[in-house]
Amino acid sequence: MRKESRGAHAREDFKVRDDENWMKHTVGFWENEKVRLDYRPVHLNTLDDEVESFPPKARVY
Fold first, then answer.
1. What is the C-alpha separation between 32 and 5, in angstroms, rounded?
2. Over the stretch 43-57, which tens digit does the pLDDT of each residue have?
3. What gap in Å lies between CA 6 and CA 14, rounded to an integer?
4. 27 near 37, Cβ under 8 Å?
């Protein structure tokens, strides 16, 4: 389980982001009557040059 806060998914026991370990998407699959969790990488590049890519940053409220 993630030990971090990220956006709207906030935890009181882990208040900051952990990009080193959790800069990835969590994906769930239903297989053989069970849920299987897996991960896929976050792509930080845009699909064309019309929009600039920018590094992730913590949300500040």
1. 31
2. 999 999 998 998 888
3. 10
4. yes
